[in-house]
Specification:
Strand order of the largest sheet: 1-2
Number of helices: 14
Helix content: 55-70%
Radius of gyration: 31 Å
Structural class: mainly alpha
Number of strands: 2
Distance between the termini: 8 Å
Length: 427
Amino acid sequence: MAINTNNTTSHLSVWRGTWALIRYRPGFFLANVIFETVFITSRLLPGWMEKLFYDKLTGTTETAVTLWGILGIFFVIEIGRLSSTVVGSWGGMQLRTTAASLMRKNIVQAILRKPGAQPLPVPAGDAINRLDNDLADFSDFPTWVPEVVGHGLFTLVALIIMMRIAPLITLVALLPLVGVFFLNRFVWARFLRYIHESSAANSKVTAFLGEIFGAVQAVKVADGENGTMGYFHMLNEERRRLNVRCATFLALFRAATDHLGDIAVAVMVLLAGTAMAQGKFTIGEFALFSTYLFFAARFPATIGSYISEAAQERVVLDRAQALVPHMPATSLVAHGDIYEMSHRAEGRQPTVPFVMKTAVHRLDSLAVHGLSYQYATGDAPDTETRSANAGIADISFTLLRGGFTVITGRIGSGKSTLLRALLGLLP
């Protein structure tokens, strides 16, 4: 038999992975997207009620609803919005936890299916960090959809209402969107590079810590404390530098998108004040514009944050796929049972049978006859001879219970290969 370790893994796109997680628990996603969208878009109602209130108060318009009636409607609207965000947040929490559990289960299963002789492609500490933080980040990404959709719908409807009142002032609100578009095209490649380098630096520190804790005695025997701590400080300093650079760049990008909206609000308030002085704008319309513009001008910042998150998730998926390079990319989000808490109450969790050990399970002797194993060319370990016939051939021996057997030979003779083949750790 031979080993084939060719990597045929393709990249899993962020959008395909997100869609797979959404389809895994569509009910949770629908609850999240519907109620969060209702919560965000219902901001339109308080703004309109403020317009009615001030117009009624100043006598600009006559309505059948009294001032106390308007305040009562406003109170009911806020209670409804609060209920919507509670249900939406519950759906988002359920979606995050189930999606993260699914991806972790898929990766751990893929790792356990590997031949035992093949080590993890990254240190154990780094692998745990990726399973914990990275997958938690990606499982949270689908919950950005209702925020973007809701904010987009709110901005669209708000612009239509404002356009009917004051077209020139409304057009100013569109300028930040144009600025965010060009800013995104300028910084996208740098986003990916900075996030990847920052994540790699974090992984190096985590991995080295795991190696230190696993080799404390060896470090002490070799009197290597100073060298070990010096290298650890060097890794930490590099991580600090890259994390500060990445965080600063992200903060600058988000601040830029935020301030584009602030500038638009300031210009629109000036234009609205001029229109009020000319008698073309009522106090109620100014209140409506002030409410709508505050949230509509934040839409570019929301888009900017979503873009930066998408860039981070690209790096997260690459790091997750690196844990199981031998598996298809889609296996990360393949659907399967994760045995949620409700399954325990329903008795749907798998049972772990207890096997009582008897004399049948007692091994008194092990006889091996003609054991052979051959690596594919170039796939032999570093200690083996990398040739067409690397491996072992025609090995026979008998092991007795309580006996002591020594396997000896020079470097590259196949001692480790023999033990791995005997234990079933090779494919």
